[in-house]
Write a structure and sequence with these properties.
Helix content: 40-55%
Bound molecules: pyridoxal-5'-phosphate
Strand content: 15-25%
Strand order of the largest sheet: 2-10-9-8-5-3-4
Order of helices and strands: EHHHEHEHEHEEEHEHEEHHHHEEHEEEH
Distance between the termini: 20 Å
C-alpha cells in the first residue's frame, strides 16, 4: 500500500477519524479570549452532557487522558487513595498517584478478571481512604469493570470520592456519572469519540470540588478551582487546542444526529460481530465472561498466530489491528471496535483476517 494511503485504524486509540471531522480542524483560528471562542466552548459543553450522564460541570483540557488521571489525584486525594488495578491502565493510575506524592495502595485482581464490588467494600472498611480510582474499560485486557456496582459500594462511604477513567468507554458505552455517583469521570478524544488525540474531558461533582478546596499543591495546569473560575466565562486557564475543539463541536453534532442510544447500540453490535468471529475461528477471550468490553476485544492467541504477519497482510489492505498490550504482546491481539466504525467495515476487517488464517 502506498505510504500516503489511508490506513484504517482498528487499534484501541487513536482510532480512525472521518474526513469531515479532520476538515473541521482547518477552520480559521480564533483568539482564545475572544467572544467567538467563548461561544464555541458554550456550544460544546451542553452537547457533552450525554457523554458523561451529568447535569453538572464539565471541563475540557488540552492534554491526553493521562493528564486528567493526574488532575483527579492531585485535586481529590487529601489522605490516601485506593487504586483498583486489574490491567495496565489501573496500574498506570496507581503509579500516577505515587508520582504526585500521594499515599496510595493498589487493590489488585488478576488481569482479565473484573474487580468485584465486595473486594472494594472490604478494603474501604479496613483503610483510611478518601478516594478510589477505577478504570471502567481496561483497554489492555478488553475488560469492562462493573463501575455502577463499584460506585454503589463507594457511596456507602461518605468521605470517599470515586474517580473513574472512562478513556476507552465514553461515547461507546453509556455512563451515568450523576446517577451512579461518580465524582470525576475522565476521557480523552482519540478513542470512542473518534477525534484526533489532544483533548481530555471530564465531569466533576460538587463533592470533588469541595475536596479540591481542601487540598494544597493541586499544581497550576490541572487545578480544578482554576478551571471552574474560567469556565464561568466559557474560557480555560491556558490556551486551549482550538482546532480540536472545532472538530469536537462538529463531531458532537454528528453523534447527536446518530443518536447517543443508537451509538451505544452500534457498539454492542460491533462487539457481537467480533465475538462471533473469535468463536468461529477457534480463539478465546482474554477477559472473563460477563465483563467483556463493547469497545475493544483482547483475543487470546490460542492458535499462535504471528500477529506481525497478520498486520502486514492487513496493512496491504489498508487496515491495522493491535498487538497485545505490554506483557500480553504475542499472547493476545486486540481488535478495537469503537468510534465511528460501521458494521460493514468490521465485517470487511474480519473477512480479511479469516483469509489470512486460511492461507
Ligand atoms: N486509560 C485508559 C483506559 C487508556 O486506554 C489509555 C490509553 O490508551 C489511557 C488511560 C491513557 O490515555 P492517553 O493516552 O490519552 O493519555
Amino acid at each position: 500500500m502506498p505510504s500516503d494511503a489511508h490506513l484504517k485504524l482498528f487499534i484501541p486509540g487513536p482510532v480512525d477519524v472521518r474526513p469531515e471531522i479532520l476538515a473541521a480542524q482547518t477552520a480559521p483560528m480564533i483568539g482564545h479570549r475572544s467572544p467567538e471562542y467563548a461561544d464555541l466552548q458554550a456550544r460544546i459543553v451542553p452537547k457533552l452532557r450525554p457523554l458523561f450522564g451529568t447535569a453538572g460541570r464539565i471541563f475540557i483540557v488540552t492534554a491526553s487522558g493521562s493528564g486528567l488521571q493526574e488532575a483527579a489525584v492531585r485535586n481529590c486525594v487529601a489522605r490516601r487513595c485506593l487504586c483498583l488495578v486489574n490491567g495496565a491502565f489501573g496500574e498506570r493510575w496507581y503509579q500516577v498517584a505515587l508520582a504526585n506524592g500521594k499515599q496510595a495502595d493498589p487493590l489488585e485482581a488478576p488481569w482479565g478478571r473484573a474487580i468485584r464490588p465486595e473486594q472494594v467494600d472490604e478494603r474501604l472498611r479496613q483503610g483510611d481512604y478518601d478516594a478510589v480510582t477505577v478504570v471502567f474499560n481496561e483497554t489492555s485486557t478488553g475488560l469492562l469493570n462493573p463501575l455502577q456496582e463499584i460506585a454503589d459500594v463507594v457511596r456507602q462511604y461518605p468521605g470517599v470520592l470515586l474517580l473513574a477513567d472512562a478513556v476507552s468507554a465514553a461515547a461507546g458505552i453509556e455512563i451515568r456519572a450523576d446517577e451512579w455517583g461518580v465524582d470525576v469521570c475522565l476521557t480523552s478524544s482519540q478513542k470512542a469519540l473518534a477525534l484526533p488525540p489532544g483533548l481530555a474531558l471530564c465531569s466533576v461533582s460538587d463533592r470533588a470540588m469541595a475536596r479540591a478546596e481542601s487540598v494544597p499543591h493541586r499544581g497550576w495546569y490541572f487545578d480544578f478551582l482554576s478551571y471552574e473560575k474560567y469556565a464561568a466565562k466559557n474560557h480555560t486557564p491556558a490556551t486551549p487546542a482550538i482546532s480540536l475543539m472545532q472538530a469536537l463541536d462538529a463531531q458532537l453534532d454528528a453523534i447527536a444526529a446518530e443518536g447517543w442510544g443508537a451509538r451505544f447500540a452500534r457498539h454492542q453490535r460491533l462487539m457481537g460481530q467480533v465475538h462471533t468471529w473469535v468463536e468461529a475461528r477457534g480463539f478465546d477471550y482474554f477477559a472473563e465472561a460477563g465483563y467483556r468490553s463493547p469497545t475493544v476485544t483482547a483475543v487470546r492467541n490460542t492458535r499462535g498466530v504471528d500477529v506481525s504477519a497478520l498486520n502486514a497482510c492487513l496493512r496491504q489492505r489498508g487496515m491495522l489491528i493491535s498487538d497485545g498490550y505490554g506483557r500480553l504482546k504475542g499472547d493476545t491481539f486486540r481488535i478495537a471496535h469503537m468510534g465511528d466504525v460501521t458494521e460493514e467495515e468490521i465485517s470487511n476487517l474480519l473477512e480479511v483476517m479469516s483469509e489470512f488464517l486460511e492461507e
